[in-house]
Amino acid sequence: MQPQTFIFFGPSGSGKGTQAKLLREELEKRDPGKKILHIETGEKLRELAEKDSYTGRKVKEILEEGTLAPVFLPIWIWTEILMENVSGDEHIFMDGISRRLEEANVLDSAIKFYKRENPTVVSIEVSDKWAKDRLLRRGRSDDNEEEIERRLDFYHKDVIPVIEYFKNNPYYRFIPIDGEHTIEEVHQDLMKRIGL
């Protein structure tokens, strides 16, 4: 199978992480033995916040305050992962990457530098009400009304323009998915739309 590249978007509560995981498992079954590189910026930021360094402490402050990391940090995280791990023959999954327009330009240049053919942008689309209800049911400590509102506002203000950037770029295959169904229904729709 030709190496696949998937870039996942979706607001908090949309289930994009779950759908990325299910698609990854499906690819592992259909193309056993091929390496899969899964990049999730949030996880790496949390790891960085655990380090006893000046940068680690600054990142920890940002995470505790719920503010945005400066653009250079996520770019540094995922570009380093790409530079150290891309061999040209792996499937790549990107989740939570390129959440501001400044990042989108850099990601586009990286995708083209590595000559990734037919990259697919998957946008899991749900209403704010759907996302809020799911997040509140999840019951995590940071899933309170105020924090959820802040994340959804950020998504509309910063992430939607990034999605539009990729949607309007003919180099990318753009697949919008209605996320307001069961996990299995969304997964089946995604598989069908991707053509797997």
Description:
Helices cover 56% and strands 14% of the residues. The chain is an alpha/beta fold and 196 residues long. It has a 5-stranded parallel sheet, with helices on both faces. The protein has one domain (5-194): 3-Layer(aba) Sandwich (Rossmann fold), CATH 3.40.50.300. Helix 4 (72-85) runs parallel beside helix 5 (101-113) and helix 6 (128-138) crosses helix 7. It has helices at 16-30, 41-49, 54-65, 72-85, 101-113, 128-138, 145-167, 183-194, and strands spanning 5-9, 36-40, 91-95, 120-125, 173-178. The chain is built from 8 helices and 5 strands; from the N terminus they run E-H-E-H-H-H-E-H-E-H-H-E-H.
Summarize the helix and strand pattern as letters: EHEHHHEHEHHEH
Structural class: alpha/beta
Please tally the helical runs, counting DSSP H or I stretches of 4 or more residues.
Answer: 8
* Outline: globular
Arithmetic mean pLDDT: 93
Instruction: Summarize the amount of helix as a percent range.
Output: 55-70%
Number of strands: 5
CATH homologous superfamily - what is it?
P-loop containing nucleotide triphosphate hydrolases
CATH topology call: Rossmann fold
CATH architecture: 3-Layer(aba) Sandwich
* Terminus-to-terminus distance: 11 Å
**Binned strand content:** 5-15%
Question: Nearest-angstrom radius of gyration?
Answer: 17 Å
